[in-house]
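Hi F.,

I've been meaning to write this up properly since the lab meeting, where we talked about keeping a consistent format for the predictions we share between groups. The idea is simple: the sequence comes first, exactly as it goes in, then the structure tokens exactly as they come out, then a line or two of notes. No screenshots and no reformatting. I'm using this chain as the first example so we have something concrete to point to.
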Amino acid sequence: MNRHLILGSASPRRRELLSLITEDFTVQLADIDERALEDDLGRRNVPALKVSEELAAAKAQAVFGQLDTETRASSIVIGADTSVILDGEIYGKPVSKEDAVRMLTNLSGKKHTVATGVCIVYEGGIKRFTDESLVEFYPLDDYQKETIRRYVESGDPMDKAGAYGIQSGGALLVKGIEGDFLNVVGLPVARLARELASVYILSSN
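Output, unedited:
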């Protein structure tokens, strides 16, 4: 039976990345309160490296639960969430330009972890994993400070975890990366493709 793939994410970056695997998918958003979930995970002392995986699972399971019985039987839902972590602290989306400057300043001259949690839900099973990449920012010299200022003024950091997009202007802050570049963008495509292949064949070939 051919399966219908559903991406449970509003991120245009994840839509673009998933299209590297297949163009045959639709998008459906989860009806959940992510902020409340994050607060609950914090109260339960869930390790920072696992928070994104827990959020991804909540998204995927919520979307799967919104489907009718017949649709569930032929669908696979993908949920994903990305965290930027420095010294055990999760850097989420900035609440203001000042907050974005604070985050990018703190990240400068250090290595931080980008963890993307992925959850795949289908009739009769669930697969979940976290992919980690290590990103190093240039030191906070005058050039870095000016680059941060101009980048924040562009508005690009405001909808991104850790206040930067490595695929956009945030790339100018980055000295190096260890691991999957696309994981930092928001979806570990190569690993996801392998995990999906173990659930079903994307085409009927």
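Notes:
DSSP finds eight helices and seven strands in the chain.
The mean pLDDT is 92.

If this format works for you, I'll send the rest the same way.

G.
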